[in-house]
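Take a specimen:
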Amino acid sequence: MAITITEEDQLEDMRLIILDDIEDESKDDYFRYYLKVAKNTYLVRVYPFDYMNMTELPDNIAAEWQTRCAIQLYDNHSNGLDNAIMYSENGLQIQFAKGGISKDLLAELPPPKGKVLYEEKEETSEDETPTDEDNP
C-alpha cells in the first residue's frame, strides 16, 4: 500500500493542532525534526532487525502515528516535559518514558517484525541413514 500522506500534510496537521494556523510556517523546522524522530522511533520499534535498511514508513497508519507522535514530542518539549517520569500535583498525573512518548501511543504500534534465521540442514545420503545401532 502506498503512502498518500505527504510531509506537507503532516506539517499542516501540526500547524493546525499546535499553532491553530495552517499557514504559519514559523515552526516547520522544529516540526520536521520531531517528524524525523517519530519516524525513526516507529522503524526501530516495529522493524528492530531491519530498520537500518528502511527509509520510509510502510503505510498511512504509520504516517498518522508519526504525526501524532511528533505532536506529542513537540508539546512535551515546549512544556518542559521532555522525559517526565511521574509527576503528580492536585490530582494531575503525568508519566512519560521511552523518549518522552506516552505508553498509550507506544501501545498503538504493531508488534515487532523480524527475520527468521535458520540453517539449512544437510541432506543425508542413504549411506548415512541412522540405524538402530546408533541409538542405544
Notes: The helical segments are 7-19, 28-46, 60-78, 103-107. The two ends are 56 Å apart (CA to CA). The beta strands are 87-89, 92-94.
